[in-house]
Amino acid sequence: MVRFFSLLGLLISFHSATAASDPAAVHGMLLFGQKEIFLSHLPMFHRPHDYQVILKVELPASIQKSYLEDRKKNPGEKIYTFVPKSFVLPTLKDKPFALEGSIYRGHFERGGTEILKNVKTGIPKVLEFKKLDAAGSLGAPVYFVVGSPTEYFMIHSIVGRPNFDHVASVTFAGGDPDDKAKAGILTMEFVDEKSDQVMEQASSNRVTVSGAKNEISSIQTLYLEKAELE
Fold first, then answer.
1. Number of structural domains in the chain
2. Of 5, 28, 50, 84, which residue is 20 to 30 A from 98 by alpha carbon distance?
């Protein structure tokens, strides 16, 4: 049984990074959410992609409508990606700016289909921005929680190598997390479980926990990547 956690409160951790240290590059991002739209950078442990970045964005109404309609027409496709034009990723940290790019049904580098071009987001809200530390100590898996009572998501905090990138929709038994999730990002920690066990159980899409308030009742994996973070 996967037991849940302590909500640790509002967390926005910015690790030192300078725009001058990294070249411009294409930074593909997982796109998820319906009520609220989120982007999660698809990271690796090498420059210039060695950052975990989670953004909350707004899309133009017509774009969001088309995106959601495409999801409804393709219920078997969980992965949608947003591919902005080349830019220096750390420049988002201190002064966020609108991103312009394309939306793909599927993974943009693994056979995905471009469905919307010339998409320009609003100025994103940076929920998490940290440089990956390959030498970091692996411990109990910690997840970020974003969203609202009608739609929560959990995003694995990547610390240490090897690791995994995991994004899932999540519902809770006995109530919802703290309302602070509406304003930003919360953390939760699994206890009495090793990182790889939680990952494998969560990736099965059948994790179920019943009982006390603030325990997970269900997890539905949207994205799970191990090879890029070995």
1. 2
2. 50
